[in-house]
Amino acid sequence: MASRAEQRVSRSLQAVLADLPPGASIADFEQFLEVLDGLEFFVPAILREIYPEWIRESLDGFFPFLARKTGEGEAEIFGLCIIISDQTLTPIHLRLQTSLSGDEVSWLECRLGEKGEHGMVRTPWPAGNATSLIVQALEGRAEAIEWAYKATFGQRRL
Questions:
Q1: Residues near 143 by Cβ (< 8 Å), separated by ≥ 6?
Q2: Cβ(8)–Cβ(107) under 8 Å?
């Protein structure tokens, strides 16, 4: 059975994607904020199943650089997320697909945090418009980042 966070992500994402063509941006939809709110709880729960250090960690928000529909019931989100314990920023790349019923996430690929010399790179949350500059610096880097955390589950429908 899906958690409340997973149901929120799935239902909100279904609503956002409903009438859009593949490739369309989803960032400007009000319900996309509900997707992001649900991901704050859903992503850490997934990471906790694999990485013990996530038992005491969570997320506190997102700054998406890219948020788009990639297929039927499917989206990609790439940008920065806020680590709740120290309010630092780190990259995140999510690809997810909702079930046909829309009540759960049937497939997820999550990559979070850039590997650094002493674990995950954590950038202090900057003031002013510096956050948007950091987000823009991510452009084209999703595949080049050496990710600190990776989690995948489910089977992607084609």
A1: none
A2: no
- Sign of the Cα torsion 16, 128, 145, 115 reads negative
pLDDT in tens, 4-23: 999 999 999 999 999 999 99
pTM attached to this predicted model:
0.92
